[in-house]
Specification:
CATH superfamily of the largest domain: Dihydrodipicolinate Reductase, domain 2
Number of helices: 13
Number of domains: 2
CATH class of the largest domain: Alpha Beta
Shape: globular
Strand content: 15-25%
Structural class: alpha/beta
Helix content: 25-40%
CATH architecture of the largest domain: 2-Layer Sandwich
């Protein structure tokens, strides 16, 4: 049994980690930390976990690293800037670290400091960190000591673009024009479990709005995914605009592509089906079917649909996921499975919740 700790277990991604790991047959949660809720049983904070977990929140304080050093893996479900303060000492103690925040996502220190307003505490460890998107970076994840769990929007964008970017590389032919438009929508849980005016019920219900229009911190992560992780041989200019929709969880990303003559001749449906035929958590829908967020709710499944108009040389890729599972906690557990040589789907076979 892996001895696991969850640092920051009171947010939405934290409670999702507890839910998923409590039923994982190879995991025992040793520590669950929270300064605000220290001493309280987890079920008193999240009644949904009554009968599932008898864990009690701990405030490890200055003893955090010493206590966590006895674990096999530590998940950080904390704000940006927390994991990097403790990661090096944990790695030195032989502990694997999976950070659900942004501390180990961006390899560019300049981009990280610009978008997250933190000076990186361990840049040398950042160079060794693996980007935690198994469908793209599985081999690096297998041997990694530190995982930077992807952002929710970049997960949908990178996996939505992966087959066509890789096909361009393989054929050494540009299949899509340089401009890529990513129009993405997320439920309000993506903003975290916090009391802010713009996130309260009266503000978000019966409302729909764009945000980050002039620039969003997930854009450099998407660009890194396309140009470095997928190693695109062609330069692409990506326009990314996220939106907040009046639902709790779920994400719908629509990617608009203009095809070249060579791209219009490619059967994109067949291309995407072939690219993901062996991936347990990526479901390419049959031609003519289109996804909805409810079809993936509370599961680690990501669904993709492709619409191609060869005459107009246009393509639309639609991607849905649960932002708290495949977009966060589920993906982190998937990475853990890869790191420790488990079946990748272990503890993640939850059927989507409908309605």
């Amino acid at each position: 049994m892996l001895q696991v700790a969850i640092v920051g277990g009171t947010g939405y991604t934290g409670v999702e980690l507890i839910r998923l790991l409590s039923s994982h047959p190879k995991v025992s949660i040793k520590w669950l930390t929270s300064r605000a809720e220290a001493g309280k049983p987890v079920a008193s904070v999240f009644p949904s976990l009554r009968g599932v977990s008898d864990l009690v929140y701990s405030d490890l304080g200055e003893q955090t690293v010493d206590a966590l050093a006895g674990c096999d893996v530590v998940f950080f479900a904390t704000p940006h800037g927390v994991a990097m303060q403790q990661a090096q000492n944990l790695v030195n103690a032989g502990v694997k670290v999976i950070d659900l925040a942004a501390d180990f996502r961006l390899q560019s220190l300049e981009a990280f400091e610009q978008w997250y307003q933190h000076k990186h505490a361990c840049p040398e460890l950042l160079k060794q960190a693996a980007y935690g998107l198994p469908e793209v970076n599985r081999e690096a994840i297998k041997s990694a000591q530190v995982i930077g769990n992807p952002g929710c929007y970049p997960t949908t964008a990178i996996l939505g673009l992966k087959p066509i970017i890789e096909a361009q590389n393989a054929q050494n032919t540009q299949l899509i024009e340089p401009s890529i438009i990513i129009d993405a929508k997320s439920g309000v849980s993506g903003a975290g479990r916090q009391a802010k005016l713009h996130l309260n019920y009266a503000e978000t219900t019966d409302n729909f709005n764009a945000y980050g229009v002039t620039g969003h911190r997930h854009l450099p992560e998407i660009e890194q995914g396309v140009h470095q992780l997928l190693a695109s041989q062609f330069v692409h200019n990506i326009r990314f605009v996220p939106h907040l929709v009046p639902m709790i969880r779920g994400m719908f990303t629509t990617i608009h592509l203009s095809l070249t003559d060579a791209g219009a001749a490619v059967d994109l449906q067949a291309l995407y089906e072939a690219a993901y035929q062996h991936e347990p958590f990526v479901d390419v829908l049959p031609q003519g079917d289109f996804p909805d967020t409810r079809s993936v709710r509370a599961s680690n499944i990501l669904r993709i649909a492709v619409y191609q108009d060869a005459n107009k040389k246009q393509a639309t890729v639609m991607v849905v996921q649960d932002n708290l599972v495949k977009g966060a906690a589920g993906q982190a557990v998937q990475c853990m499975n890869v790191m420790f040589g488990f079946d990748e789907a272990l503890g993640l076979s939850h059927v989507p919740v409908v309605p």
